[in-house]
Amino acid sequence: MKKIRGTKPGATHVTGPGGLGVEAFASWYRARTLEQWNRLDFAALAKVAAVIERAQAAGRFIWVCGNGGSAATAAHVGCDFGKTASRKGAKALKCVSLSDNTAFMTAIGNDLSFDETFSRQLESVVAKGDVVLLISGSGNSANLVAAAKLARKRGARVVSLLGFDGGRLKSLSDEILLIPSDQYGVIEDLHMAVAHILTFYL
Fold first, then answer.
1. C-alpha span between 195 and 76 (Å, rounded)
2. Which end of the chain, N or C, is less surrounded by CB atoms within 10 Å?
3. How far apart are CA 42 and CA 149, in angstroms?
4. In the chain, % of residues over pLDDT 90
5. Backbone angles phi, psi at 122, to 5 degrees
6. What angle do CA 153, 92, 120 make, to 5 degrees?
7. What residues does each domain of the chain span?
8. Phi-psi category of 74—alpha, beta or left, where left has phi over 0 and alpha has psi -120 to 50?
9. How many helices (H) and strands (E) does the chain have?
10. Which superfamily is assigned to 41-201 in CATH?
């Protein structure tokens, strides 16, 4: 097992059983993924969807943030919500991934602090009625925690896709969808599946 920065104290990234061939390892990974898929909390998913739908109907913005693999998911959400989502007759979703502006993010990280990479961006744009969608495996990343606090102060709704036990973001979010796995890959796979469910539902 190896320690991953940004997780709760003592958390580890379980890489799976050693000594397996690729087929056996794939079978092991599939079992872990299906276990979480079968436990997916549809009631929590419905609450997350409802928050986004209300913002969509009101013409408010969805601001999406994530780090690392979750930054890639945030970028995917920004693309899919903007291009694909919206049932016929519904208002278009105004969705922006704050993980995509490399110049802005590195300027903030270099001149201020990496912990402010999202909250500083939100300072300029977030408004009451907007939704800040946070995507995180651990739920403990300092820049996402800061983004949640800023969003709440501005009257925006905070929705989080989380893993492990939800970390600090669990108590800072209005609604969460939790994938209670200790496998980052499985968590990120399920987060992406949830993003696609929301895209094609909305």
1. 8
2. N
3. 26
4. 84
5. -65, -35
6. 30
7. 41-201
8. alpha
9. 8, 5
10. Glucose-6-phosphate isomerase like protein; domain 1 (3.40.50.10490)
The Cα 160–Cα 136 span in angstroms is 8
Selected residue with higher pLDDT from 92 and 94: 94
Q: What is the DSSP string of 50-90?
A: HHHHHHHHHT-EEEEEE-THHHHHHHHHHHHHHHT---TTS
Closest Cα partner for 172 from 134, 128, 120, 124? 134
User: Token digits for 98?
Assistant: 């704050």
For 170-189, letters b (16+ CB in 10 Å) and e give: eebbbbbbbbebbbbbbbbb
**pLDDT tens profile 27-69:** 999 999 999 999 999 999 999 999 999 999 999 999 999 999 9
Kindly tell me the sign of the dihedral angle through the C-alpha atoms of 18, 8, 99, 91: positive
Asked if pLDDT for residue 9 goes beyond 80, the answer is no
**pLDDT score of 18 more than 90:** no
Residues 65, 135 contacting (CB under 8 angstroms): yes
Measure the CA–CA gap between 147 and 187, rounded to whole angstroms: 21
